[in-house]
Amino acid sequence: MDSENKILIGSWIQAVGTVLSAVSSTRFLVRVEEQSEGLDMVGNVLQATGNALEADGQEGYTIGKIGNGIQAIGNITVISGLLIEEDTIIRDKLFISGNLLQALGGAAALRDEWDGPDVDTMAIIGNLLQVIGNSLQAIGGANEIKTGESESIEAIINTGSWIQAIGSVILAIDITKEQANIK
Questions:
Q1: 127 CB contacts (<8 Å, ≥6 apart)?
Q2: Which of 55, 60, 178, 51 is nearest to 102 (CA)?
């Protein structure tokens, strides 16, 4: 598979993964906890796979390539937390750390979009939304540990999930348009 296809396919795999993870955090869509966790697991696996494909498709060593790699590591960290059977502080800390790593990776990718003569506004917006979304999820997780409450914090995490999903879909559309030379 050539580099452009890796980036394109990776962006859509990541977008599908973020949407699945957002759906998993939306209680009126998925009411059974086991189904929610399973859907979140699949979503994070897809996100990690998509980010890894995007990183692999990028030529040379750029901040964006490193950012995609960091995002994939963040997803793997979240997956590690989901594999812990009991609801523990370690599980919650892995969720928080994974989302912070994803935000850091997104910030690196965002930084990479500012370089060069052509500024890609859609890519900037998409990456910025992902950074905001992941940050909200981490903040929600940290507040849940701190307060012990989950219902009021759930809205923060859910909002962050959907903001991240919107950002990743915007990026996938942007990459698709860019590769098709559509402005």
A1: 106, 107, 109, 110, 113, 167, 171
A2: 51
- Tens of pLDDT, residue by residue over 53-88, are 999 999 999 999 999 999 999 999 999 999 998 878
Sign of CA pseudo-dihedral 24, 25, 31, 33: positive
Asked whether 96 and 138 are in contact (CB, 8 A), the reply is yes
Residue 104 and residue 130 in contact, taking contact as beta carbons nearer than 8 Å: no
Q: How far apart are CA 179 and CA 47, in angstroms?
A: 21
For helices 89-113 and 33-57, the axis angle rounded to 10 degrees is 30
pLDDT at 150: 79
Q: Provide the token pair at 101.
A: 């790593």
133-166 pLDDT, tens digit per residue, is 999 999 999 998 999 887 778 999 999 999 999 9
